[in-house]
């Protein structure tokens, strides 16, 4: 039986040419892509200064601005009259920082104003960052805000605000270094402090010489007690060896 001969390779049908070509992404292409992606900016006027802020970041962080910009165009201008431009500048800088960003170089009056700004804007992260800064500043430098700052923060904050507990705690620590006349004001802050001073003893609260002592006094007494116990134990050990 005759076997059909194979066609020469040259006579075989060629595959359809591939007209698709791979495009190599160049630096120019990357730049063009980045240029195409533009963030929406909104203008916030505070005092005589204009701030151009990323709308997405602003509305994501602040419930105040989220409600303000709802259903509006991105180019709409918003005026913020309840704060100073220098404090809003700190806020915008904080928005551009990482999660571990620090707020440095602020006085207690500045921190009080920034805390009020955080409550106004309903930005929980910024609000908590200010409280954290207050606590670390107080612990590191052993410096606490003046009475007028603590009273202002307490009376202007919401009843459930953690700043109220913080202010009362700070006042308790310095109570015995202050004159009694400082607590004659009949406002919520003074009442809260006096309630804390006269409250039943709980947890760490202890009585020394018949009066409530601040936390620093407790720590000093405990250190002294540990030192005495250690010295007593060492003395007994030496006596046994003798």
Automatic annotation (TrEMBL):
Domain BTB positions: 40-95
Superkingdom: Eukaryota
Location of the region described as Disordered in the Swiss-Prot/TrEMBL record: 1-38, 222-242
InterPro entries in the record: BTB/POZ_dom (IPR000210), SKP1/BTB/POZ_sf (IPR011333)
Pfam families: BTB
SUPFAM superfamilies, alphabetized: POZ domain
Bias type Basic and acidic residues, positions: 222-234
PROSITE patterns: BTB
Protein name as it appears in the record: BTB domain-containing protein
């Amino acid at each position: 039986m005759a076997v059909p001969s194979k066609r020469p390779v040259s006579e075989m049908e060629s595959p359809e040419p591939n007209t698709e070509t791979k495009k190599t992404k160049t630096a120019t292409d990357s730049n063009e892509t980045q240029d195409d992606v533009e963030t929406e900016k909104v203008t916030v006027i505070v005092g005589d200064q204009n701030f151009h802020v990323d709308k997405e970041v602003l509305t994501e962080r602040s419930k105040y601005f989220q409600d303000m910009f709802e259903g509006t165009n991105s180019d709409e201008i918003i005026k913020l009259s309840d704060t100073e431009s220098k404090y809003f500048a700190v806020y915008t800088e904080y928005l551009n920082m990482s999660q571990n960003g620090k707020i440095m170089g602020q006085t207690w009056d500045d921190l009080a104003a920034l805390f009020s700004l955080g409550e106004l804007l309903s930005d929980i992260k910024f609000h908590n960052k200010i409280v954290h800064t207050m606590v670390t500043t107080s612990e590191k430098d052993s410096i606490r805000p003046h009475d007028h700052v603590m009273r202002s923060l307490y009376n202007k904050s919401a009843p459930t605000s953690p700043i109220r507990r913080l202010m009362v705690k700070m006042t308790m620590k310095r109570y015995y270094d202050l004159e009694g006349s400082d607590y004659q004001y009949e406002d919520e802050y003074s009442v809260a402090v006096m309630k804390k001073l006269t409250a039943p003893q709980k947890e760490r609260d202890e009585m020394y010489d018949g009066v409530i002592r601040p936390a620093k006094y407790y720590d000093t007494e405990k250190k002294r007690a540990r030192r005495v116990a250690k010295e007593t134990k060492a003395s007994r050990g030496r006596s046994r060896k003798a």
